[in-house]
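Progress against Task 2.4 (sequence-to-structure conversion) is shown through the following example record, which the project officer requested during the mid-term review.
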Amino acid sequence: MPSSSNSVSSSTINEKTEQHTRLSHDRPLTNKGPPETEANVLPETSDGPPDDVSDVEKGHAPTKPSFAGIDPSSFPDGGLQAWLAVSGAFCCLFCIGIFQAYYQTHQLQEYSPSTIAWIPSLTTFFMFAGGPIWGKLYDNHGPRYLLLAGTIFHVFGLMMASLAHEYYQFLLAQGVCSPIGASMIFYPAMSSTGTWFFKRRALAFGIMASGSSLGGVILPIMVDHVIARSGFPWAMRSVAFLLLGLMVYANLTVRSRLPPSPKPWSLIEFVRPLQELPYLLVVMASFLFFFGMFLPFTFVILSAQHDGMSTRLAFYLIPILNAVSIFGRTLPGYVADKFGRFNTMIATSFLSTILVLALWLPARGNVPYILFSAFYGFSSGAFVSLAPALVAQISDIRQIGVRTGSMFAIISVAALVGTPIGGALVSDEGGNYLHLQIFCGIMMLAGSVVFVASRWALVGTKPLVKV
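Structure tokens generated for the chain above:
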């Protein structure tokens, strides 16, 4: 602590702080100068406090000014309303992940794996491609109407899938209608959660994202038992009714802490972030990683059956993967808030790559497949919760929704074509999964390397810095 002869009065500090805060709020958003992000406004890697508040009289704590609306003290980081919003967002993210294998052996068995793979690919594509649109609507109008419309589309699509008999009917119902509704649910849930948390944001996102993992445990087992007793149509209807109940709760609990701020639509605001190197590299890394990340979810059951696992046991690989993914989406979020979000993303990305190339690729027999499903569920689960946290950390606070939506819209292209490419590789090899596994591992490795590059763009070659 400096001596009183070298310190400034607290009243002078407060005047400067108030003036700086007022100016930061009043000035318009421009494209001049570096963007005001969490990474440079409240840097986690800073060596000391800002110059204008570094010296204060003994006994007075420094006052941090609020830039561009960033004021950590204004985020509750907990409380009843905040955790109710997280619980509602958790319900929004229930999903289904077993129908590639089921369709291939039942209703659509006359179609090739690559053709059937367009259903889960379109599901993932429409889930993320609407990001800029839903993000902008959320910014302008809040979460309420999006959640209501998304509930209707999501449930209606599943109900229509229960009546489907032809390939195009399954494609439209479960590959288009239902995921469009799910997308309208996902973005307001994610954005609303972010308004309640600052220091614990990655953890909150992780808890929210674990909803899809729990759904991936419960729903496949539920669907399997209902199909055995009542047939496929009633299995789909049962899922639709369950999701309807969950969405009623979500509609009542998901709230944004901030009021809507309507602004005119502008195409350039979706493109401008790509001019920033850290954001561009995060998007590129996510795009490459996404190419491979969902391939094990889609093909691990089929590859296990190809290598001799019984159909009954293979069916439980996805529930195992999703069960462990619950911890993979929450624990890394907690660690990321403590040790750095980029650091945690890089570690879990490389771990996922190693598991694909060193465990899934040479797997033969039941034990390696079970171990791979468990470990991969943990390591890959981190991506879903950490990706929006990375974007938030390097984004102008007033544009987080648009920038997150733009990133997910770009990587949705990888989700669209990645699974059909994997299916085509399997078909070309006469049912062998070797080339698919190699393709998966290489794309994830490329994404992991670009994540390292994005960290380098932020802090350079400083391996021990929290970022």
